[in-house]
Amino acid sequence: MTGHTVEKIGGTSMLRHEELIDNVLIGTRKAADLYGRVFVVSAYGGITDKLLEHKKTGEPGVYALFASSDSDWAWGDALSEVGRAMQGINADVLKDAGDAKAADDFVRERVEGVRSCLIDLSRLCSFGQFRLEEHLLTVREMLSSLGEAHSAFATTLLLRRHGVNARFVDLSGWRDDSQPSLDERIETAFRDVDIAQEMPIVTGYAQCREALMKTFDRGYTEVTFSRLAVLTGASEAIIHKEYHLCSADPKTVGLDKVRVIGRTNYDVADQLSNMGMEAIHPRAAKGLRQAEIPLRVRNAFRPDEPGTLILSDRGAPEPRVDMIAGLKGVFSLQFFEQDMVGVKGHDQAILEVLQQHNIRIVTKTCNANTITHYLDCSMNALRKVERQLSERFPAAEVDIQRVSMISVIGRKLPGSAFTFKALAALNEAGITPLGMHDLARRIDLQFVIDDKDYETALRALHAALVEEDGASRDTADNDSKAGKSPEADKSDATKAPALADAA
After folding, report:
1. Does the N-terminal or the C-terminal CB of the chain have fewer CB atoms within 10 Å?
2. What letters, b where the CB count within 10 A reaches 16 and e where it falls short, cover 76-104?
3. pLDDT confidence of 27, banded at 50, 70, 90?
4. Cα torsion for 442, 443, 449, 454, to the nearest 10°?
């Protein structure tokens, strides 16, 4: 398989099925031009929240209710509600009565199969020799697979109704008692697929012995997408989002002021992920980077625009800020102990406690007697960490503060003059940083600020480091009479602020 693309569509975009048909899946393509593309699909928006738990609010879904010993039959009612929600989507997406019935039958068979399995497991674990906790990861994976299997099956029916030779590729391992590796699962499924004459619609979840959710939890679709691109030798991997990857959040900075990044590298993509602006999961990006497969992030609803191309090349023709990104409402955990100077073990002990509670570290700083971690987690989890550290180090002072972080991310960021310009922009906006990390690699410049100053700081830094810089570049381009290479023209085309349309 060569010359094809592997493309991923997110759950929010999946709900806009008519626009996907017009812009991504079919558009103006005809005959052979429809093929040479493999699509990995996420569950329809909101379905995975119902199956597991709500990603933002934590409201329990089927999994959370089943895992709770106090839920009784609540998980069964929740599973029935998931089935009704899926059938409601079928009615909306599939206008042909036969297609809708086939999709409803598919949903019913999967949902009732899962229900029977969970009833049997619950009965088995009522005996003391069997512990439910030992099976919860498998339950979580099985429930997750329902969402992607449903969306892939319904999308396949929809495309066939539009005359496309679509093929449902189910990696979920439904009723399969084998335990292949991820690579084996994909290779077996694609053994007789002809990409030149078929359009594979692939489940974002893949059942395999690596247990993707154990490592990636709800980022598993990107891992499947990445590995599929590598194993099939894709010429390009494409992620379709409901917005462009642009220089800041348009809702905060203003749609008319942001610019599409256009072109960057995987190094920058990793920093964006750390700040919550995830283009792709870093572990998923690793395979693409090593295989030197370019990743393109496109706006699914602006098909004529190239989006942002992410390459393995870490070089850059000139210094440039790609994005001002941040995390609002993170916590600083400051650990101070006067006698820590010259004594080893404190940092390792803190890391062990943070890892025990599965707390994500955004960044950290330290000096002779203070170690400060900036953490993306809940206050409840952090209080548990505080108690454990205070018990282990009674002489230490542990201080927690709610803050925000903003990172200026780019390539070959200039030296001290650039840092002073950023500080001046914050000062002019009336903001005094609580901390600053000016890192030697010049890939990002991080500021810790008061939580209430987040949006003001984001706008101030974007105005000074992106908008002013962009204006000066535009002036220089207009004054120059020299010819440009096609690559330069392509890059400049992505700078138009109107392109950065966040749905």
Report:
1. C
2. bebbeebbebbbebbeebbeeeebbebbb
3. very high
4. 140
